[in-house]
Amino acid sequence: MADKTITVRAARFDPEHDKEPRLQSYEVPFYDESMVVLDALNHIKNHIDGSLSYRWSCRMGICGSCGMMVNGTPKLTCNAFLRDYWPRPVVVQPLNNFPLIRDLVIDMDDFMHKLKSIKPWIIRKQELPLGAGEHRQTNEQIDDFRQFSECINCMLCYAACPIYGLNEEFLGPAATALARRYNLDSRDEGLKDRLPVVAEAEGIWECSFVGECSVVCPKGVDPAKAIQQTKLDTTMRFVLPYGNRE
Amino acid sequence: MNAEHRPRTAIDHLFFWFMFANGGVITALLMPVHVLVQGILGPLGVVPVVDQHYDTYANVIGNPLVKLYLLVLIGFAFFHFAHRLRYLLADFGVPAAKSLPAQVIFYGGAVVVILVTIWILLTTIPISFG
Amino acid sequence: MPLNWWTRQRHYFLYMLREFTALPMALWLIWLLYEISGLRSGAHGYTPPRSGLFVAFSVVVLLFSLYHSYTFLKLAGVIMRIKVLDRQIPSRVIVFTMFGAWAVASAVIAFVLIWFAR
Predict the structure, then answer these.
(1) How confident is the model at residue A237 (pLDDT cuts 50, 70, 90)?
(2) Which residue among A103, B52, C28, C40 is least enclosed by CB atoms within 10 Å?
(3) Do A200 and B8 make contact, defined as CB atoms within 8 angstroms?
(4) With contact defined as beta carbons under 8 Å apart, do C7 and C13 qualify?
(5) What is Dmax (Cα atoms) for chain A?
């Protein structure tokens, strides 16, 4: 078992020399069944080729920075076990649908702008004074939004979304799911700030419910559900009499 | 996104989606039985079906409730079809499918079908309560 | 984005199939309109649908139509959030109700189409 290896084909791209990304093969020792793709990349970086660039931080599925295409599917590389691919080679490529900076590193500016545009924080018309005590919530009130609050901004859903791939103006899955997370929070009063952003032409209406965002999400968030529910809610606000309009 | 860009709820898209969703539910609930009974069982003679004979069909089509039912079914259905096919075109890599002219063509097409439906229903077999 | 993106994965392909169901269903409803307008040529001019070609067409449309019904009603259960007495109704109950409504509606329409043929 000590000599078992796995072939990792990693995308390489140097903006100063390359026109197109290319794949480079590395033989990585596979000595432990619990090894993940990120371990293999770290082995390459430390022992074979120090020039390989990629993002990572926590290696435990919390920071959301090691998302890449593993054999064509967006995955957190810290959560993609080599044993699921061996003895076939693993192809590691940068996340789909984003501009490439170098090797496996993508430009996430667009997502960061979109994230900020939906104001992902609790908005109050008037802050309660500290003396008033804590904002209390029932279990049911927490259940309303808890699922959507699990998002770690890893952008796998954007890489999986063909609509975003075809039109980068689309607000996208994670941003809409987070907008819904705050809109459903009983402590929040920011619906009127977020709704125009979410319900713009390039917002929820762009989505045609492919549903792949929810399939690839490593945290079990269901962005596709968030988007469709937001469509229905927004429509009802306008269709029902005395709806709470902007 | 520039600083002057002021986001606004897109009422037009909201309306299109409302019609699409209603049309989706209506066609999901009603289409298969029409196709099965009128398109397969009737022509094969498995069961007697109203549209296999002029008298029975004319009798049913003359009923105002039936006319209203057909208008609702066909009207919502064609908004549903127009919406889906417009997005399908965009999925095939035609960004123009998201443009205003495309919206006019697709949803305008649905409106034309609705007008034709009204005309056909009003001019075929006068309304009778019998 | 390569234009054949939807051929590269099963899930994407099924999505495109779901969207495509609109086209055959639209053609069938246009045929229905044509059949109704045929009533204007009177008792002798009206030709009831009996051709094998039309049955084959309807079989194809029925498959697409069933796929549309199945996917749309199932997804409707995901979308709708209904609260009764502050409790969220589970989505499988909503999906079950949707499929129940489908069965009832189909039975009623089939009854009308067959009963009034006498």
Answers:
(1) confident
(2) C40
(3) yes
(4) yes
(5) 71
Partner A contacted by C84 (CB < 8 A): no
Residue of B32, B43, B81 with shortest CB distance to C26: B81
Neighbours of chain A (3+ CB pairs under 8 A): B, C
Tokens, residue A241? 């009499």
Confirm whether C72 is domain-assigned: no
Q: Is the pLDDT of residue A228 over 90?
A: yes
Q: ipTM value of the model?
A: 0.94
* Cα–Cα distance measured from residue B55 to residue A79, given in angstroms and rounded to the nearest whole number: 68
Do C49 and C85 lie in one domain? The reply is: no
CATH number for position C15: 1.20.1300.10
* Residue pLDDT, tens place only, C19-56: 999 999 999 999 999 999 999 999 999 999 999 999 99
Q: How far is CA A180 from CA A176, A184, B114, C26, C77, in A?
A: 6, 6, 36, 35, 18
For chain C, which chains pass the contact test of at least 3 CB pairs under 8 Å? A, B
The two beta strands, A22-29 and A5-12, are antiparallel
Give the DSSP letter of residue A44.
I
- Exposure letters A142-172 (e unless 16+ CB within 10 A, then b): eebbebbbebbbbbbbbbbbbbbbbbbebbb
pLDDT score recorded for residue B127 = 83
User: Coil, strand, or helix at residue A6?
Assistant: strand
Whether the per-residue pLDDT at A1 is higher than 70: the answer is: no
Structurally, how many domains does chain C consist of?
A: 2
Q: What stretches of A44-133 show up as alpha helix (H) in DSSP?
A: 109-117
Residue A15, C-beta contacts closer than 8 angstroms, at least 6 positions apart: A100, A101, A102
pLDDT score, position A244: 54
Residue C1: domain span: 1-64
CATH architecture of B13-32+48-123: Up-down Bundle (1.20)
Options 1.10.10.10, 3.40.50.1980, 3.30.470.30, 1.10.1060.10; which CATH number does A109-239 get?
1.10.1060.10
Domain A5-106 adopts which CATH fold? Ubiquitin-like (UB roll) (3.10.20)
Query: Cβ separation of C105 and B58 shorter than 8 Å?
Result: no
